[in-house]
Design brief:
mainly alpha
Length: 220
């Protein structure tokens, strides 16, 4: 259900942007997207906590999932970064953090799907995730993170890369008086390129960073 909601609102957003042309103001109204993604995050949160019996834990899971959905989408600004980072996080969580079972199977399926998409998007992009694909991967990453994190909080390190990018971008936009949902070139991917890193090297760097974070979580 969460994946269907996220993919659906993302698809509507992509189609509206496509039909609007280059001079259009944007896709689906940000408030509509926020409500839809909150609903998706709420469904994910119910897999680790009962909102009536444990409302604080449920709210924390909802907040983390909502942020991760958007954080993964935020990284979709340089070829291969979102798919590579999501694949590294999902495969790391699915193979090591989660016990064998349905949750690990779903997580690994999403991770291998992201990995399978990667050659079409990096280093020579022929296909793009769009908001629909990025939101879907975001829900998958959020689901895996709250499942693993509820058992061992150290595994939240697996999603440190998208969370770090999201946090610094949002804080910078707020400091500059810019709406947080308005895109710009202040992401960690852009900073890396401005420092001289070749564009094709950004995706491997972020994926390796995520692998390193997973290894650190495993060691802890």
């Amino acid at each position: 259900g969460a994946v269907a909601i996220a993919a659906g609102v993302g698809f509507a957003d992509d189609r509206k942007k496509e039909r609007g042309g280059a001079l259009a103001d944007g896709g689906v109204d940000w408030r509509v997207k926020a409500v839809a993604l909150l609903c998706a995050a709420g469904l994910v949160a119910t897999t680790v906590a009962d909102p009536s019996g444990d409302p604080w834990r449920w709210a924390a899971a909802l907040g983390l999932t909502f942020v991760l959905i958007n954080a993964v989408n935020f990284l979709d600004n340089t070829d291969g970064v979102t798919a590579g980072t999501a694949a590294a996080a999902l495969l790391g969580l699915g193979l090591v953090a989660l016990s064998p079972g349905a949750t690990a199977t779903v997580t690994l399926a999403a991770g291998f799907a992201a990995l399978g998409f990667l050659p079409f998007n990096w280093p020579y992009p022929r296909l793009f995730l769009g908001d629909s694909g990025a939101y879907t991967l975001g829900v998958s990453v959020g689901y895996a993170a709250v499942q693993a994190g509820s058992a061992a909080p150290a595994w939240l390190l697996a999603v440190a890369v998208p969370l770090a990018d999201f946090t610094q971008v949002v804080l910078m936009r707020i400091a500059l008086g810019v709406p947080p949902w308005v895109g710009d070139r202040r992401h960690l991917t852009h900073i890396a390129q401005n420092l001289g890193l070749p564009r094709a090297a950004v995706a491997p760097l972020f994926a390796l960073g995520t692998v390193g974070c997973c290894a650190l979580a495993r060691a802890i």
